[in-house]
Amino acid sequence: MTAVGTGTRHPVPGRLGHLDVLESEAVHIIREVAGEFERPVILFSGGKDSVVMLHLALKAFAPASLPFPLLHVDTGHNFPEVIGYRDRVVARHGLRLYVASVQRYVDEGRLRERPDGTRNPLQTLPLLETITRNRFDAVFGGGRRDEEKARAKERVFSLRDEFGGWDPRRQRPELWQLYNGRHAPGEHMRVFPLSNWTELDVWQYIARESIELPEIYFAHDREVFLRSGMWLAPGEWGDAKDGEPVERRRVRYRTVGDMSCTGAVLSEADTVEAVITEITASRLTERGATRADDRMSEAAMEDRKREGYF
Amino acid sequence: MAALDHPRRPLSPTGRPPFPAAGHPPHSTAALMMRGIFQEVRARLSAPPRNRAQEGQTDSMSHATQDRAAPAPETDLLRWATAGSVDDGKSTLVGRLLHDSKSVLADQLEAVARASSGEGPDLALLTDGLRAEREQGITIDVAHRYFATPRRRFILADTPGHVQYTRNMVTGASTAELAVILVDARKGVVEQTRRHATVAALLRVPHVVLAVNKMDLVDYAEPVFASVAEEFTGLTAALGIPEVTAIPISALAGDNVVEPSAHMDWYVGPTVLEHLETVPVGDDAVAWEPTRFPVQHVIRSGDARLYAGQLAGGVLRVGDRVTVLPSGRTTTVVGIEVLGVPADAARAPQSLALRLADDLDVARGDLVVPAGAPPEVSRDVTAAVCHLHERPLRAGDRVLLKHTTRTVPAVIRRIPGGRRLDLNDIGEVTLRAAERLAFDRYEDNRRTGSFILIDPADGTTLTAGMVCGTPPPFVPTPHEGERDALG
Ligand SMILES: Nc1nc2c(ncn2[C@@H]2O[C@H](COP(=O)(O)OP(=O)(O)OP(=O)(O)O)[C@@H](O)[C@H]2O)c(=O)[nH]1
Ligand SMILES: [Mg+2]
Fold first, then answer.
1. Are B42 and B129 in a shared domain?
2. pLDDT tens per residue across all 487 residues of chain B
3. Which end of chain B is more exposed for a tag (fewer CB within 10 A), N or C?
4. Which H or E element spans position B450?
5. Is B56 within a domain?
6. Are residues B380 and B351 in the same domain?
7. Which ligand is nearest to the CA of B254?
8. Nearest ligand for residue B118 CA
9. Which residues contact A70 (CB under 8 A, 6 or more apart)?
10. Does B467 touch chain A (CB under 8 A)?
11. Number of domains in chain B
12. Same structural domain, B201 and B76
C-alpha cells in the first residue's frame, strides 16, 4: 500500500544500499542511548572506528550539537599524529574531552609497567575509574563483532557489572531493535553502534562521507623494525633491541592502538580508494596483521573483556 | 599458508560452475515427491557428475590463496540465522560456508587449525569463539559473522541448538529474514527442531530453509532426504510457514554448501549459498507497510524542534498529513532531514528527523502515522510470547513493557490455561499497560508489533512479545487459573 497523505507526491528514494542500512541502524542505536541514559560518553581514540562512530553521532543530532562528551584512554604511548588529530577534531566540533591517563597511573605507582612494555592491558583500570568517578552510565565503543571471535558474541547493549566485567554467559537476550537500557546503580552499559560493520564497510563509509582520518592510516615512510613478525615503530615506549635492525619502510597502519603492540603493514596505499583495494585483497584480518595483544592466547580478548576492557 | 590446509577431504573444488540464471522453485512436499519419479529420467539425461575428489586434487589449496571477490560498493544485505538441534551441524555449516566462499582469512584459519584437536581444522571453531564453547564443543551464545559475495552481503547469526540456550536462538532469529534449520539426516526431526521451527514461525522469519545435514553418513541417499523433508514440511505447514526450501547437504564435506554436490545428482536445486544469494530481500516489503515513525528523541535547534527517529515502515513525504499517537492530534510534515540533509521523502528503515507544522506536544515514545491509517491504540494487548528467563512469568506480575521507543509499566492479566510460563516456554498472554500504546499486529509490522517485558527490580529482559491484537472483553470462567489478575 502507499502512504496516505494529501502532500505532493515526492518521489521516494530507491532501495537502500548496505551502507545506508548500517548508518541508519547505528544512528538509531545512538539515539536510543540519548533517550534512555543520563550520562553517556563516547570512547574516542582517534582510530578509524571511533572516528566513524563520532561522525555518526554528530549526524544523529544535527543540526543540534552532540549531547555527549568524549573519553580517551591515553596509554602515554600513542602515535603523536593521532593525539594531534584528536585535539583538532575536539576543537573543530567544540566537544568536551575527558582523558584517562595511563601514564599518570604508572607515575603514581598505581599501575606497574609490564616486562614486554605493552600498555594495552593497563588501560582497563583508568577506564573503569573514570567511568565510576564521572558516573557515566552508557559508554559508546567502536568495537565491531567482525573484529574478533569474542566480540562476535557481544550484544549491542552490553551490560557491565560494578567491576566493569563482561559475563558472556549472562548476556541479556536482545530482540529486534528493542535495546534494554535498564541497569542498577553502579552498573553501566557498553554500547556498540558499529556492531554489524566490517572493516570494509568502515572504509567504504569513510570514502562515501569524505571523513578525515589520522595520516598514519595512509602509506608513509617510517623507521620501523621487525619484532615477532610485526613492524613496530620506535618511540617513547621503547626501541629496537640488538638484532632488530631499524629500517626505513613505506608503511601504513590498519589499526591504531598503543605503539608498543600495534604493528604497521608494508603498503603503498596512500588514498582511501587504494586502502579499500588493499584490504579487499588482503589475506589477513586487521587484528591478525597488526595486534600483538591478540596473539598472546586464544582467548586473550575474551579475558580482557571479562576484566572490563573495551 | 599451504601448511594450514591439511583437511581430511579436499575442502573445496575449484572451477565454480556458473550460477543458475534465476531463483529456484520452492520445494513443496509435492515437488519433493515428484523428484523421486523424475529422478531416473533426469539421471539418464544429465551429464556425468563432476568428480569432486579429482578436481580437488588438481588444485585443492588454491581457495585459500585466491583473492576474495570484491563486493560491489553498495549491495543489498541479507540477515539470516541458523537453527536446529544441538550437534546437527549449524556451526560446521557456517564455517564451511565462510571457508568455501573465501571469507576466512589466513590468520583466522591458522588460529582455528591450532585450536582443533582432530587432524583437520574444525570449521565450527570459526564461530564457537568463547572459551566455554570450545571446551564443551557446543555453541552457547549467538555469534555474528559477516561475509560478502559479489552479489550480496550477509549478516549471519549462528545460534545455539541446546535447549538451555533457546533464548539466544531467539535473539539471533528476531531480526533474521531467513532461517536455515538444520536436521541430522540420521535423526530426522527432533523436539528441538520443532521448537526452533515454532520460534521461526512465531517470529515470522520470512524465508525458511531446511538443510538436511550429514548426508555423508547416510550414503547420500535420496529417500532419507525425502522422508526428512516430508516430515519437516508437514510440521512447517501446520505452523503456517508458507514455503520451505529443502537442501540435502554435508556441512563437513561441503556438499551443496557452496558448490553443488558430486554425490547427489538426484538433487537439482540450489546450493545453500546460491539460495542465500538469490532469495528476495524484504526491504521493499518493509518500505511499503503502513507508515510508522516512532519518535526517539526531540532535537532542539534554536526555536525549532525536530523529531528524530527511524522509520519503522512505509514512506514519509513533505506535505503528508500525519497523526501523532497516542494523543491523536493531526498535523502536516513540513520538513524531513535525513541525518542533516533536507529531503522531500524518506523510506523505511531510514533514520531521520521530522519538522511538523504545528507546535504539538510530541515526545519520545510517540508514534507518527498517516492521518487515516492509524494502528490500534489501547492499554490492553494480547500477544504471543516467548519467555526468556529462569524466573517464571505469572498472571498478576508487574513488569515494564518496552514497545518501540516507549517503556511503560504493565501488569500480566491473564495467561490462558492459568499456566505460568517457564524459561523457553511459548504461550499467549493478555496484559494491560499503564498508558495507551499504539501498536500493529506483529504479522503486519515486526517493529511496531513487538515488545519486550523487563523485570522492574533488576532490569532483566524477561519475555519477548508479538502482538496479536486487543483482547476480547473479559468473560470470567469457572476455571481457577483463568481468573483475571485485575478482577
Ligand atoms: N559426518 C558429518 N559430521 C558433521 C557434519 N556436520 C557437522 N558434523 C559434526 O557434528 C558435530 C556437531 O557439529 P556442530 O557444527 O558443532 O553442531 P551445532 O549444530 O553447531 O551444535 P550447537 O551449536 O551446539 O547446537 C561435529 O563433530 C561436526 O564435525 C556432516 O555434514 N557430516
Ligand atoms: Mg553451533
1. yes
2. 333 333 332 333 332 222 222 333 333 333 333 333 223 222 322 323 333 333 333 333 333 334 445 555 677 889 999 999 999 999 999 999 988 887 777 777 777 777 777 777 787 787 787 878 878 888 888 899 999 888 899 999 999 999 888 889 999 999 999 999 999 999 999 999 999 999 999 999 999 999 999 999 999 999 999 999 999 999 999 999 988 999 999 999 999 999 999 999 999 999 999 999 999 876 555 556 789 999 999 999 888 899 999 999 999 999 999 999 999 999 999 999 999 899 999 999 999 999 999 888 899 999 999 998 889 999 999 999 999 999 999 999 999 999 999 999 999 999 987 779 999 999 999 999 999 999 999 999 999 999 999 999 999 999 999 999 888 765 554 454 445 555 4
3. C
4. strand B450-454
5. no
6. no
7. 1
8. 1
9. A41, A42, A43, A44, A54, A90, A95, A96, A97, A98
10. no
11. 3
12. yes
In a domain, B153, yes or no: yes
- Ligand 1 touching residue B214 (CB < 6 A): yes
3-state class (DSSP) for residue B34: helix
Interface test with chain A among B94, B114, B122, B153, by most A beta carbons within 10 Å: B153
The answer on B388 and B353 residing in a single domain is no
Per-residue confidence band for A122, with pLDDT thresholds at 50, 70 and 90: confident
Does the beta-carbon distance from B309 to A31 stay under 8 Å?
yes
Task: Provide the 8-state DSSP code for B313.
Answer: B
CB B405 within 8 A of CB B440: no
Question: Does the Cβ of B264 fall within 6 Å of ligand 1?
Answer: no
Distances (CA, A) of A146 to A245, B103, B169, B349, B381: 34, 12, 19, 23, 38
Same domain, yes or no, for B364 and B408?
no
Range 242-281 of A in CB contact (< 8 A) with B = 280-281
Domain shared by B345 and B265, yes or no: no
Bridge partners (DSSP) listed for residue A101: A74
Provide the 8-state DSSP code for B69: P
Question: What CATH number is attached to the domain comprising B340?
Answer: 2.40.30.10
In the chain, the amino acid numbered B85 is S
Q: Per the CB < 8 Å rule, is A198 touching B146?
A: yes
In a domain, B346, yes or no: yes
Residue A114, chain B, CB below 8 Å: the answer is no
- Out of B220, B250, B283, a domain closes at B283
B63 occurs within a structural domain: no
How far apart, in whole angstroms, are the C-alpha atoms of residue B84 and residue B336? Answer: 44
**Full domain range(s) for residue B296:** 289-370
Do B115 and B187 fall into the same domain?
Answer: yes
Domains of chain A: 18-200+299-307 (3.40.50.620), 216-295 (no CATH)
Q: For position B183, which CATH number holds?
A: 3.40.50.300
d(Cα B94, Cα B124) in Å, to the nearest integer? 7
Which DSSP string corresponds to chain A? -PPP-SS--PPPP-PPPHHHHHHHHHHHHHHHHHHH-SSEEEE--SSHHHHHHHHHHHHHHTTSPPSS-EEEEE-S---HHHHHHHHHHHHHHT--EEEEEHHHHHHTTSS---TT---GGGGHHHHHHHHHHTT--EEE----GGG-TTGGG--SEEEE-TT----GGGPPP--TT-------TT-EEEE-TTTT--HHHHHHHHHHHT----GGGS-EEEEEEEETTEEE--BTTB---TT---EEEEEEESS---TTTB-EEE----SHHHHHHHHHH-SS-HHHHHBSGGGS-TTHHHHHHHHT--
- Return d(Cα A302, Cα B78) in angstroms, integer: 28
Q: Which three cell numbers stand for residue B218?
A: 547416510
Both B222 and B164 in one domain: the answer is yes
| Nearest Cα residue in chain A from B424 | A173
| B130 touches A: beta carbon within 8 Å | yes
B138 lines ligand 1 (CB under 6 A): yes
Residue that terminates a domain, selected from B370, B390, B418: B370
Flag whether pLDDT at A98 surpasses 60. yes
